[in-house]
Amino acid sequence: MSAPRGDRPRVFIVDDHGLFRSGVRSELGNQVEVIGEADDVEPAIAGIGHTIPDVVLLDVHLPGGGGHAVVTALKATHPHVRFLALSASDAPEDVIAVIRAGARGYVTKTISGAELIDAVYRVAAGEAVFSPRLAGFVLDAFAALPAADQERPSFDPELDQLTPREREVLRLIARGFTYKEIARELFISAKTVESHVSSVLRKLQLSTRHQLTRWATERRLS
Amino acid sequence: MAEQTRTKRRRGSWRRIPERRLLGGVAAGVSARTGVDITVVRTVWVLLALAGGFGVACYLAAWLLVPATGQRTNIGSAALTDRTGITLAAGLASLLIAVFVLMSLVGAGWVGSFAWTFVISVIGIVLISRNAPADEQVTLRRLADPFIGFTGDTRRSRVALRALIALVLLLAGVTTLLLGHTSTALLRPLAGVALVIAAIVVVLGPWWLRVGRDLVAERQARARAEERADMASRVHDSVLQTLALIQRRAGDPQQVVQLARAQERELRSWLFDGHAPGSMAADTTFGAGVRLIQGDVEAQHAVTVEVVTVGDCSVNENLEAMLAAGREATVNAAKWSGVQVISIYAEVEPAEVSLFVRDRGRGFDPSTVPVDRRGLSESVRARMARHGGTATVQSVPGEGTEVSLSMPRAAGNGSPSPSPSPPPPPPE
Predict the structure, then answer these.
(1) Domain B278-428 belongs to what topology?
(2) B306 vs A135: CB contact, 8 Å cut-off?
(3) What is the pLDDT of residues B142-158, one digit of tens each?
(4) Does residue A4 form part of some domain?
(5) What interface predicted TM-score (ipTM) does this complex get?
(6) A196 lies in which domain range?
(7) How far apart are CA B34 and CA B172, in angstroms?
(8) Is residue B426 within 8 angstroms of chain A, CB to CB?
(9) Which residues make beta-bridge pairs with B304?
């Protein structure tokens, strides 16, 4: 991961703080190719549509609407652009909203430069990137109402629940384990860990689960 | 917890357990060896004792011949060298035998049925009371008190009155019993037994009361000791920690003043308002408690604490202890790991609450930590154990340390707040 690669991911940064954008830019250094920046929803949609980057580093909170507005606007027209949500400290419902809209992962701004580069490469490769905090949010969201939704059964019940293994992996991520450490802890390959995480991401995005929405609304209300 | 380990131990030779004794710890030993509940063992023993004194003789023999835990020799072997004791026992025994022989000659043959248990008991009492360790001797004296002329009771007139009433009841009872054999009235034996029991109660009642009181006092003393241990670990967490910090930052007067102020405030609120250090108002939740730890440790130790919480519930006494243990683990990580980031993961599940404190610092070899380092052993492990939880520490030198705490949520152990939503907003 340390040496610059031939196929450096092309990265677009969306954040309303100029200082933060330049900070990220310098942290990423020449490991990736930063091809553009934007500070709000509208310029971001225009810029990304114009440059077609591999990975968009997306702030969860933007003045002209949440980060999920950017994802939603571009998802249909540019399915190959991948989004990695990035924020200092956000309400779980906003983070989950960005993920549900289609982002491939979420990391906090306290992440180190090397870890951020690693995360960008992973997202570019189509993997899911879960920070401890996102793992906690997801566990919370799925654990909130463990029983199947009685009132409004969904089309695919499998999507509404995490398997015990997925739950286990998420808990370890939440505890601060890296994929490699999780693999060692559970006696599985790092590849398998990754597939569990991707499967969680899929469930999170595809589940029509009523609870997931209700969970978010309830949190927002209180 | 200590109690549990003892109940579990079933192998090895049979030992008396003086720590759990009412008398000599024989029943406790049997219970530990067989796994039968100690109350059951005691009940059986009392029944045996009532049946012709058989149980009493057995008990005393066991007391004499079975060594206590941690000791190699029994009281009997010590008694072998006690010439005076042996002479005394032999004298008493022969005297008793003579009395019994005389009584059976006179015609009261029924005494013979429990004569031998009586003789064995007397020999046992004499030898144990002379050769057992001091504290067991005291117990035995207390036990033998009412038989050896009501010693220690100064109000002689009252004792005499009691003895007189008992004698009358006993005589009436025995007469009724003896006559009952010839007459056909069914109720007579019952009345006789009742009278005899009444006589025993009159004689021994006060003594039983005293034994009961002593047992209660003992339990209270134990509770006090536990409270003291709790207090010691609190003082360690707050005052001693702050003093250590002040020593480290001696060069920065402003920091020192700030630390001292904070500590003073905390100590005052503990001593005068009853808020334990590091504890929160009664209505906060577990998640809020974890975030409080995050804030405090970040402020005091200039590290970043990353917190992830899943689920939430209200805090009770056990969870408060768990938070205190978690705080200690976090402070430990801040002080010793050598890294700037510590991760806390807290999860509230229906059955249990878990808390993980992890750092990627220098780690240590758990087996080389000195026993007297209070932080881990007392503040974390023992505190969790006292409240029914568990703590494990995993550490690899060079890779980091993780302290895992878990506390079962038994009935009443932290009522769930309406998860997933966080606690209701404070009233405006």
Answers:
(1) Heat Shock Protein 90 (3.30.565)
(2) no
(3) 666 655 544 444 556 66
(4) no
(5) 0.77
(6) 136-221
(7) 43
(8) no
(9) B341
